[in-house]
Design a protein that fits this description.
By secondary structure, the protein is α+β, with helices and mostly antiparallel strands. It is about 30% helix and about 30% strand. The protein is built from five helices and nine strands. Helix 2 (about 85-100) packs antiparallel against helix 4.
Length: about 190
């Protein structure tokens, strides 16, 4: 039960199970405490509430979603066991997206070798390689999610996770990798 205090307009008193407790309003708190609580001290890193692992994300401000008339999207970089490894992978993605002038979690000199390596790769390929480094990503041979080599016959197989309450939807096996990718792209465009 919420009761307004007659003494102050900034303070609310809660009466629950016979006890009273005071909660300060945001006007009574210092400015640092008023800001949203962050789950990590690093830029681009959040802690997942259920798994406890650290996820790295980056905001792609150049992406344009024409169907929703929105600009920008959040790009998932992977889930990591340590906060520092998630922050380092965010830094690598930020270097690929925005170059050496961007704000990083660690000094740019730490990434000299990685920066030279990423110049030879496309943005999508490099992000896929970052996700592969994460502890929460499948270790299949493909850079595409849901695509892996079948363990028994070596053919490529495709699955889509969590469809209509099922654990996954099996799409089939293919002898050639490119045929599988074409099938998946056509499947998604047909279903839209």
């Amino acid at each position: 039960m919420e009761i307004s205090s007659p003494h102050s307009t900034n303070t609310t008193i809660f009466k629950a199970s016979g006890r009273r407790r005071r909660r300060k309003s945001s006007g009574d708190l210092p400015s640092a405490s008023r800001s949203a609580k962050r789950s990590s001290i690093y830029r681009g890193v959040t802690r997942h509430k259920l798994t406890g692992r650290y996820e790295a994300h980056i905001w792609d401000k150049n992406y344009l979603n024409k169907s929703q008339n929105k600009k920008g999207r959040q790009v998932y970089l992977g889930a990591y066991d340590t906060e520092e490894s998630a922050a380092r992978n965010y830094d690598l993605a930020a270097l690929k997206y925005w170059g050496t002038d961007t704000t990083l979690n660690f000094p740019a000199a730490n990434y000299d070798d990685d920066y030279k390596e990423m110049q030879a790769m496309s943005k999508e390929d490099y992000l896929a390689s970052l996700r592969r480094r994460s502890s929460g990503f499948s270790r299949g041979a493909s850079k595409y999610r849901g695509v892996a080599r079948h363990h028994y016959n070596g053919r490529w197989e495709a699955r889509i996770g969590r469809i209509n309450g099922n654990k996954y939807l099996y799409l089939g096996t293919f002898s050639m990798y490119l045929l599988l990718i074409l099938f998946i792209k056509n499947y998604f465009f047909r279903s839209l």
